[in-house]
TrEMBL record:
Protein name: tRNA N6-adenosine threonylcarbamoyltransferase
Keywords associated with the record: Acyltransferase, Cytoplasm, Iron, Metal-binding, Transferase, tRNA processing
One GO-annotated biological process of the protein: tRNA threonylcarbamoyladenosine modification
UniProt family annotation: Belongs to the KAE1 / TsaD family.
Binding site for substrate: 137-141, 170, 183, 274
Cellular location(s): Cytoplasm
Start and end residues of each Gcp-like domain: 27-309
Domain of life: Bacteria
Protein role: Required for the formation of a threonylcarbamoyl group on adenosine at position 37 (t(6)A37) in tRNAs that read codons beginning with adenine. Is involved in the transfer of the threonylcarbamoyl moiety of threonylcarbamoyl-AMP (TC-AMP) to the N6 group of A37, together with TsaE and TsaB. TsaD likely plays a direct catalytic role in this reaction.
EC numbers: 2.3.1.234
Record organism: Hydrocarboniphaga daqingensis
Length: 333
């Protein structure tokens, strides 16, 4: 299971990414092209434009990834791709190219769930969590608390009933007049804000359970925001919003750790790059005496390194599961 380089493609949304991982040498290369500038003028991702740009970029990125790794296509042991969830047209670009490469080289094809990639991303860091652990997955499309018992053994303990956390960040950022994608912009604005100036709800923390709801928080911001808000008020609101989200996530993580007795907490997905969230969860982990594991910030947001790791782990585990070629916009973990 060592020298088994797996090349992976990630094209589920607005990043075209290629990476190569093997068990012996670790991550051999990773490349990425972000479409943020392409979509910014529309205030969100335009699916048709995303698909077309993936087509333009993907072959060049594969060439770069192979070059960086010092490998030819014939040296590969498998090809992995993100099969879903995501934008269907965008997913089909990665799936088709992966299938073509696998067919040409006679290699196994591994379909990877995008959120499995996110939750295994900390495995790319020097200090890795051991199974079983709790994973908080916070991205633009998903908010999940997952019990991770092993590769392919995932149990969803809680999820958002409406907006994902990243979506709440992006919508709130839009209200505050910030560009897309708003999460990192809102976090920067919050740095200048004073804590405690606004009191936003901690949704669903007053009742038992591990599910989330973030759409009301966005509404609370819309209500609190004066039409003629000055920069300081906007920063104060950003800070209080961030604190409300962070506190809500921490409360649910605390509960899930209590319920499972697990000794490790993984935080991944785009919002996992948020500094205040990281600090709050570090407090929680210290207080509980559990290990806290984050991917480096560039592997919190979408990337192919995490898909390469997941694909490699599936092959190494002889749990490649799905050699079928398929894509799916919706796919429970
Ligand atoms: O995982 P990801 O790159 O893509 C999805 O699979 O959705 O997550 C993107 C989300 C966006 O909503 C973005 O605003 C948010 O992650 N995000 C952040 C930060 N960096 C990215 N939200 C808050 N603070 C950040 N520093
Ligand atoms: Zn993602």
């Amino acid at each position: 299971s060592g020298l088994m380089p797996v090349l992976a493609l990630e094209t589920s949304c607005d990043e075209t990414a290629v990476a190569i991982y093997d068990g012996e040498r670790g991550l051999l290369s990773h490349t990425l092209h972000s479409q943020i500038r392409l979509h910014a003028q529309y205030g969100g991702v335009v699916p048709e434009l995303a698909s077309r740009d993936h087509v333009r970029r993907v072959n060049g990125l594969i060439r770069i990834a192979l070059e960086q790794a010092g490998l030819g296509a014939a040296d590969l042991s498998g090809v992995a791709y993100t099969a879903g969830p995501g934008l269907i047209g965008a997913l089909m670009v990665g799936a088709s190219v992966a299938a073509g490469l696998a067919l040409a080289q006679g290699l196994p094809l591994v379909a990877v769930h995008h959120m499995e990639g996110h939750l295994l991303a900390p495995m790319l860091e020097p200090e890795r969590p051991v199974f079983p652990f709790l994973a908080l997955l916070v991205s633009g499309g998903h908010t999940l608390l997952v019990s991770v018992e092993g590769i392919g053994r995932y149990r969803v303990l809680g999820e958002s009933l409406d907006d994902a956390v990243g979506e709440a960040f992006d919508k709130t950022a839009k209200l505050l007049g910030l560009p897309y994608p708003g999460g990192p912009h809102l976090a920067r604005l919050a740095e200048a804000g004073q804590p405690g100036r606004y009191r936003f709800p901690r949704p669903m923390t007053d009742r038992p359970g591990l599910d989330f709801s973030f759409s009301g928080l966005k509404t609370a911001v819309a209500t609190a925001l004066p039409v003629d808000a000055d920069d300081q008020q906007r920063a104060d609101i950003a800070r209080s919003f961030e604190d409300a989200v962070t506190e809500t996530l921490a409360i649910k993580c605390d509960r899930a750790l209590e319920a499972t007795g697990y000794r490790g907490l993984v935080v991944a997905g785009g919002v996992g790059a948020n500094r205040r969230l990281r600090a709050r969860l570090a407090d929680l982990a210290t207080r509980r005496g559990v290990g806290l594991y984050f991917p480096r910030p560039e592997f919190c947001t979408d990337n192919a390194a995490m898909i390469a790791y997941a694909g490699w782990a599936r092959l190494a585990d002889a749990r490649p599961a799905d050699g079928r070629l398929f894509t799916t916009a919706r796919w429970p973990l």
